[in-house]
Every structure is written in C-alpha cells, then in structure tokens.
Amino acid sequence: MIQAYVFRKGKELVDVAVEDLSEVRAEPGTLVWVDVVDATPAELARMGEEFSIHPLALEDIAQAKERPKVEEYPDHVLLVAYAVEGGKDGGRCRLHELDMVAGKNFLVTFHGGRPINAETVTGRIRAHPEMAKQGAGFLLYVALDEVVDSFFPALDAIADQVEDLEEAVFEGRSEVQGQLFGLRKDLVAVRRVAGPMRDTMITLLRRDLGLFNREAQRYLQDVYDHLVRIVESVEDYQDLAAGALEANLVVVSNKVNVVARNLAAYAAIFAVVTMVSGIYGMNFRHMPELGWRFGYAWALALMLGGAGGLYVYFKRKGWL
Predict the structure, then answer these.
(1) Beta bridge partners of 106
(2) In this structure, which topology does domain 2-251 adopt according to CATH?
(3) Helix (H, G, I), strand (E, B), or coil: what is residue 191?
(4) What residues does each domain of the chain span?
(5) Quick one: 253 exposed, middle or buried, by C-beta within 10 A (0-12, 13-18, 19+)?
(6) Burial of 160 by CB count in 10 Å (0-12 exposed, 13-18 middle, 19+ buried)?
(7) E strand map for the chain
(8) Which pTM does this prediction carry?
(9) Strand 2-8 relative to strand 11-13: parallel, antiparallel, unpaired?
(10) Residue 237 CA to chain centroid, in angstroms?
C-alpha cells in the first residue's frame, strides 16, 4: 500500500496521485513523503522509477532483516533503522525494520506497518510548518524520532523485569533462570540494532551529503543523543541481568549445599543406629549382652542416645 503526503510552503496538498509525484516534487518549496506498507515488487519498482532510487538501494529494501546502516547515492541516501515493540508483562521484544530513502525534498519509507504511525508523523509536520521548509532533513528527523522513541517503553518494561527478577532471585523462585535467559536474549537483540543505529547517525552527521542543512542536522543530532542513551541503558541492563543470573546461581548453589549438609547430618545419625544394630546382630557365641535380661533395652538406649546426641549437636551447628 502506497500513501503519499505532499506539503508546499507548510501546507498539505491533497489528492496528489502517485504517478505525479516526480513532477510535483520538482516544484520549488515542495516536500514529499511517501509511506509504503508491505511493498510488493511492483510497488518497489514504481517507487524506484518515481524517485530515481538506485537499484542497489531497492535491492536492500527488498531484503528483510538488513543490518542498520546508511548508504550514500548521488542524490539520495538509504537509511535502515529498527523500531522495538513489546517487553511488557514479561513478553518478548520484537524488532520491526524501517527502510528510508531521503533526498533533498522527499522521503520514502518502507515498512511492514508497525514501526511508525502515519497520522502521528503528518501531525507533527502540520504542527511545525516552518520546519517543513527545512526540506527532507526534518521529515527524516520526525520518522527517526518516532522509531527511536519506540525503544524507551520497551526499555522501561525491561527495567521492571530486571527489578522483579532480582527480587525473585533472593526469594528463591525456581523459574527465575529461564526468565533471565529470555531477558538477556531481548537485550542482545535490542543492542544488536541500537548500536549500529547509533553508528549510522554518526556517519550521517559527519558526512557532507549536501542533502540536509545545518538546522536539520541539529534535529538529527537529537536523535543521535537518544540512541546514545538507549545503548548505555541496554548495557546497564545487561550488567544487571548478568549480576542477577550470577546471584541466582549462587542462591541455587547454596540451596544444594544446605540439602547436602542436611542429608549428611541425617546419614551420620542413622549410621550410629546402624552401627549399634549391626554390632548386636552379629550373633557371636560369646557376647555378654546376649544373655543379659536388659540387653534389648540397652541396645535401644544406645541407639536413641547416640542418635539424639548427634541430632542435638548438628542442630546447634546449624546443619539441621
């Protein structure tokens, strides 16, 4: 599905056909944004023709799960970014790819319908008509800002999970380890895209592309600052998750040690009982206690006394 939005001197034009975009964007003071959702090969070819998109850029757009990057072409750039969704109520994070082709006065976005909301983006452009005059740099900033902002709710949810799991570790819950491994997988997935996105913004800001003016670059610098915060937060949460996992292993090891200590104490107690019963069960001919009237009571008393004495000793030592 292709949706076109055209702005001229801060005002939105309606009923602009897609096939007329190449002519419309050639007019002075015109800014064009085309949002393509679940692009078909025919729609990709159509956008490539209307905006003279390089074939290599179209090839990257057609490929799913591209690494975040920026590619420079004669009159436009290709920027691959990701949005993050999920993380709430212990759910897994999901990544959504957004491919953006930006020129001097146009932006074409390709995605699967999840990373950005068209109404939100156009609403921000309508609210700042003076910034629309800055060209595609402001459009690119708005789209990137929407994508990058999607990281923060996910990271907040991850922070809540880390806190809950830390409490669960010291409460000794048995299901914590699986949840910690799932959390670490989410953090690795987020870091895998956030880090390259940060590097991409550095490249975009440092290259003299001639597509964005100084004011637009200031806005793009704000996106870079947000990505730096995101990467630092992910690293912090990874350290906390690793610490919680190590603490969980220590707690589990302590539990095993306590169980082993208890079993060893009870084994020692029953060893005394077994020893006494084994001695008086040998049935040798010359054993004085065998003919003694109180021999049975004596054996029982030895068993109970030995076992009781060991029980008190282990109880005082904290083994039971």
Answers:
(1) 32
(2) Beta Polymerase; domain 2 (3.30.460)
(3) helix
(4) 2-251, 252-317
(5) exposed
(6) middle
(7) 2-8, 11-13, 30-37, 69-72, 77-86, 93-102, 106-111
(8) 0.73
(9) antiparallel
(10) 10
- What digits encode the pLDDT tens for the residues 209-266? 666 777 777 888 888 898 999 999 888 888 888 888 888 777 777 788 888 888 888 8
Chain Cα centroid distance, residue 214: 34
Tens digits of per-residue pLDDT, 153-207? 888 888 888 888 877 777 777 677 778 888 888 888 888 898 898 988 888 887 7
Q: Are 97 and 61 in contact (CB under 8 A)?
A: no
The one-letter code for the residue type at 154 is: A
Length of the chain in terms of residues written: 320
Cβ-contact 251, 169 below 8 angstroms? yes
Contact 260, 181 (CB under 8 A): no
Per 3-state DSSP, the chain is made up of helix, strand and coil in percentages (nearest 5) of 65, 15, 20
Per DSSP, the three-state class of 253 is helix
Q: What does the longest C-alpha to C-alpha distance in the chain come to?
A: 122
Are the CB atoms for 78 and 85 separated by under 8 Å? Answer: no
**Strand-strand pairing, 30-37 and 106-111:** parallel
Q: Residue 215: exposed, middle, or buried by beta-carbon count in 10 A (0-12, 13-18, 19+)? A: middle
Q: In what order do the strands lie in the sheet with 106-111?
A: 11-13, 2-8, 30-37, 106-111, 93-102, 77-86, 69-72
Residue keyed to tokens 């459009």: 139
Residue of 63, 122, 114 lying closest to 84 (CA atoms): 114
For the CA atoms of the chain, what is the radius of gyration?
Answer: 35
| Pair 93, 76: CB distance under 8 Å | no
**What is the CA 317 to chain-centroid distance, rounded?**
46
